[in-house]
Amino acid sequence: xxxxxxxxxxxxxxxxxxxxxxxxxxxxxxxxxxxxxxxxxxxxxxxxxxxxxxxxxxxxxxxxxxxxxxxxxxxxxxxxxxxxxxxxxxxxxxxxxxxxxxxxxxxxxxxxxxxxxxxxxxxxxxxxxxxxxxxxxxxxxxxxxxxxxxxxxxxxxxxxxxxxxxxxxxxxxxxxxxxxxxxxxxxxxxxxxxxxxxxxxxxxxxxxxxxxxxxxxxxxxxxxxxxxxxxxxxxxxxxxxxxxxxxxxxxxxxxxxxxxxxxxxxxxxxxxxxxxxxxxxxx
Length: 283
Ligand SMILES: N[C@H](CCC[C@H](N)C(=O)O)C(=O)O
Description:
Elements (H helix, E strand, L loop, with lengths): L2 E8 L2 E7 L9 H8 L9 E6 L9 E6 L4 E2 L3 H15 L3 E6 L2 E7 L5 E4 L25 E2 L2 E2 L2 E4 L3 E6 L8 H9 L9 E9 L2 E8 L3 E2 L4 H13 L6 E6 L2 E7 L5 E5 L2 E8 L1 H5 L6
Parallel strand pairs: 2-3, 12-13, 14-16
Antiparallel strand pairs: 1-2, 1-19, 3-4, 4-5, 6-7, 7-8, 8-18, 9-10, 11-12, 13-14, 14-15, 16-17, 17-18
Bound molecules: 2,6-diaminopimelic acid (API).
């Protein structure tokens, strides 16, 4: 049984998207890793599956698999891509879909961009989650290689945001995995390094949980803005300058984080039976 897929991305953070609403598909971790492999598979940062849902007001359930086979409850860039797909399908300018982190609402913004209301940030240590009661404004137990005391934010998934003087100088491939797997994060964490350029602009680079360095991270951009505003480094709205381009993030007065940015559909294709059969039944 082969399956059609769409190859999409948000600022270079790329996805294989499967519509499994009519034919359920629950790949094993091994299948996800095989599909995500950039040499022997299709290649992607996350593998996204649209599932049928009975959730009121939702057009689909969006399941998110990282390239390492782990599952995540939130993915900002993929949320814009799925929102766009559902709007194209319905002909409407709005779409809502369920995720493990809750019901998300997407709508068309200017210049072909899409806005997703990513909901409220979760700021309590137990919601990140962290391993022990901690002030999430500066997590002192997390330090390595001259970097210490990140801000912890949950956007449906865990983030640790370090503020630095020069984001380009961070040895991301070296320190990223150390922080991703730090014992303070019982569910691991996405890791951001942010350089505040002005009260309305932040340069940010990211090491993603389960995917490594990516060109952009939507939930990471949301976490970065929330962290900067909490520290008084910016206002509640700023442009986040990522390797792949810019996202505009706003943390509204009624505690919603709005993420606006582009969506791209690169190509469609078919997963071969060999690729889908990899690791059938494996963990
Ligand atoms: N690596 C993330 C999921 C993808 C997030 C990112 N691609 C985004 O756009 O938010 C995690 O394990 O929580």
